[in-house]
Amino acid sequence: MKDQSSSKQQKPKPTKAERRALQEAQRAAKAAAKGEGNKGSGTATSANAKPAKAVKPTQKADTASVAATEKKGGDFPPEKDRKKDAPQPRLQYDDKSRVEKAKRRSVVKQTESRNRVELFRHLPQYEHGSQLPDLEAKFFDLHPVHPAVYKVGLQYISGDISGGSDRCIAMLQAFQEAIKDYKVPPEKSLGRDLTAKIGSYVSFLNECRPLSISMGNAIRFLKSQIAKLPLTLSESEAKTSLHSDIGRFISEKIILANKVIVKHAVTKIRDGDVLLTYGSSLAVEMVFLHAHELGKQFRVVIVDSRPKLRGQQLLRRLVEKGLNCTYTHINAVSYIMHEVSRVFIGAESILSNGTVYSRVGTASVAMVAHASRVPVIVCCEAYKFHERVQLDSICSNELGDPDVISNVKGRVDVNHLDGWADIENLQLLNLIYDAMPSDYVSMIVTDYGMIGVLGAELCPAVLRRMIFRFKKTV
Prior knowledge:
Elements: H1 2-10, H2 16-36, H3 42-49, H4 55-72, H5 79-85, H6 96-105, H7 131-137, H8 147-158, H9 164-180, H10 190-208, H11 213-227, H12 235-265, E1 273-278, H13 282-293, E2 298-304, H14 311-320, E3 324-329, H15 333-336, E4 342-346, E5 349-351, E6 356-359, H16 362-371, E7 376-379, E8 385-386, E9 433-436, E10 443-446, E11 449-451, H17 455-473
Helix pairs in contact: 2-3, 2-4, 8-9, 8-10, 9-11, 9-12, 10-11, 11-12, 12-13
């Protein structure tokens, strides 16, 4: 008895491959038994006797069952949908064949700049002067483009709408008008046809001016709402639902989000503070005005830069409300920083590695503040967070009109760059955004709360919460 028990204990365990082969043979036996029904159990015994031959049909049966579950909509999305979820590669403008195809499809006239900057050849570099007149002349020829979308595109080119939130709101309101007038063509489904329509509108707006990261998030939200519309809804009910979804996104994610940011950020302002801001940010302006309404005594330093000089508009609005302000240019920021107690800046987007993507010059201001041990507080809505990772301002950016930096407003005598386009080997670079590393950020204030020094680690958490909220609103 002892010898038998010891031999049982010493019996080698089957390997993983052997166990898998045995399981597959048993599955094949069950499948064969079900197939033959009441004819007998002979097939099952023969399948058990020859497990090696039963392996191949089992694999086919397993793959067929997996495919069937995918078609029925199991736990995992089908392969086709998984391919759709993958982000499309951005168009590299140094690829001549792809650029030529994009030009043929484009509505807006794209004339390449003569003096292109070599380092930024992968970004679009077009002549800005001819786009607006050409697009205005095509008004009656652009039947696929809705008039509301066309109007917003003209405002993008002319610069009448330029802020990140303003551009996003204008785009969504134009989509509301387009959906209101939309009618489903015969023999087509609302979901697919409307998604294609929205895609054509997005392409048109992107030709007028490259879309911001936050606008991409809003477009993705709208397309997901279209895809989740129940098939039982009528056309009018579906359009009403989408109209209310867009309105809710504007009110909750942009307007109310700014109000929540103000409540959080105003707690960081104390009496006697000297607060510095760069350019013009709607959220930062609301923070200053609310702190002034609460009776807090502080001074605002507005740092500005050419060519747009947006800080001048902010200066006028704050002075009209009775705030004590100082105005200076970015070349004097290291001098004025010794008086500053806190820096408040806005952001175009915040990436998943904590990089702040904002107006060009923001990184310089933050670096000077960091060197002077002045805390930098970034005010940014959660819908502007993005899962992209970016380490520099070269791989992805937007190039503005180079002519605007060759002219100085109010200074006719400064004409050294007149006719610069005719000078060989001279290129002017007008970057719109820069990327600020998270090392220079002390705090990020969002509508979900305040993120401290470990902003880079908590940015993915904000992204997850934003995606969860989007799903919850459906």
